[in-house]
Structure prediction request, 220 residues.
Amino acid sequence: MSRRDDPAVWNQVVVADDAVVTQLKDGIWPSSSSSAPTVMARMIAALRLEPGMRVLEIGTGTGWNAARLAALGADVVSVEMDGDIAAQARANLRNAGYGNVLVVAGDGEHGALDHAPFDRVISTAAVRRLPFAWVEQCAEGGLIVTPYTGEGHVDALLVFTVSANVARGRVQGNAYFMPLRGHGVPQAEQRATESHDELRIEVTKEGQHLSYGERQSSTG
Ligand SMILES: C[S@@+](CC[C@H](N)C(=O)[O-])C[C@H]1O[C@@H](n2cnc3c(N)ncnc32)[C@H](O)[C@@H]1O
Prediction:
């Protein structure tokens, strides 16, 4: 659906507080979207941004969230895996007056080493394991905000604090996002997962360590 074909319906979709799917994989599965505005606002609030901060965003999509970060005074580098979507986001951002946002086409799992360090990292795709590259590229005392679907939680919004190359994260509400490519959880496993809001995750070079109450587990 395009603005040209049906401006009234297009406008309804744009102003609604819902995610707007903008790409389907195999004609069925959503593979890119513009996230719901209030969810993005919650994630940006969790970032505790200050003007001038350097922000790494993973999953540019339409560029909408990157534009909001730039409007708050952040210096934004955004990584998008799909080359066509990255090119469209660059055009969207330029047309909206945010040509200063740098959109990099590539696998965000590796961050954006050439542009590190970052004061903040925000992912708009859900992780199962927090990539250590994001921890390494985050400045001392920096924050990483990401949706998480994996062991211990189906749809957590995690906020990590980085210190001495270790990221320590806890749940700050819910956020259900499409997975970062390569991080999808098989549906049967996802259905079997219970959500624990007391989940804590610690990420080091060696891997990810989960704890909640008495139980603990680690993955490399
Ligand atoms: C929910 S959408 C992003 C919404 C977007 N931030 C916005 O403002 O419209 C998730 C995006 O993450 C991208 N993505 C998925 N895996 C990725 C990866 N490993 N590296 C970079 N981008 C990825 C998808 O192609 C998709 O465009």
Remarks:
- The pocket of S-adenosylmethionine is lined by residues 31-35, 58-62, 64-65, 79-82, 85, 107-109, 124-125, 177-178, 180-181 (CB under 6 Å).
- The helical segments are 7-15, 37-47, 64-71, 83-95, 132-136, 187-192.
- The longest strand covers residues 138-150.
